[in-house]
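Lecture notes, continued. The same structure-token format from the folding unit now serves as the input rather than the output. Read the line below as a description of shape only.
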């Protein structure tokens, strides 16, 4: 009995995710995915129009699960400083095991303008990631500020994006020092906000 179409599509996506995590985006092509999945290249194109499409689809489900966990941390009700620590620690764990894909999803996607990106066709996926991280961390930081002393949102967004850049760079260069990396970024965010005359709740 022939396999059902959804089973074939899922098999392709699993192979694509594995390969994109192991090799750089440029090294993975439709032939490699087809060989790993045990299907023809024509079958790949039946389900996906191009490589950006299969890349986005391969990581859509895992990103949803990641953001579900981050949402639980953000709304956990514990002290906001602890929430920020847990949020950044989990983000580190996520990005540390996705060695190759993370460079596109979190580095290229967040810190490169769409016009300058080599991966313009995946701009929707990148925007989803960037917006979610900025919203989540911004929400936690606002909970750490006095209610009568809040920073305007566009300034908070810029602070978060700039410090996340440092965070991912530290994680890549010093992968064994997660606690120190999280502490460094937390202190950097606090210092930037304090420079605006606002003291965070300890």
């Amino acid at each position: 009995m022939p396999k059902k179409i959804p089973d074939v599509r899922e098999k392709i996506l699993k192979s694509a995710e594995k390969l994109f995590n192991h090799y750089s985006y440029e090294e993975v092509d439709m032939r490699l995915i087809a060989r790993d999945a045990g299907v023809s290249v024509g079958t790949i194109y039946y389900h996906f129009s191009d490589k950006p499409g299969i890349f986005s689809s391969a990581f859509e489900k895992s990103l949803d699960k990641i953001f579900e966990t981050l949402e639980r941390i953000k709304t956990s009700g514990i002290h906001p400083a602890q929430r920020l620590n847990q949020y950044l620690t989990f983000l580190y764990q996520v990005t540390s095991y996705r060695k190759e894909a993370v460079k596109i999803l979190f580095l290229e996607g967040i810190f490169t303008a769409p016009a300058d990106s080599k991966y313009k066709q995946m701009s929707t996926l990148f925007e989803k990631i960037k917006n979610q991280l900025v919203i989540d961390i911004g929400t936690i930081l606002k909970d750490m500020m006095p209610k009568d002393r809040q920073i305007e949102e566009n300034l908070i967004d810029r602070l978060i994006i700039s410090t996340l850049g440092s965070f991912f760079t530290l994680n890549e260069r010093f992968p064994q020092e997660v606690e120190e990396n999280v502490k460094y970024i937390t202190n950097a965010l606090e210092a930037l906000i304090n420079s605006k005359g606002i003291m965070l709740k300890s």
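Point for the exam: The CA atoms of residues 64 and 70 lie 10 Å apart.
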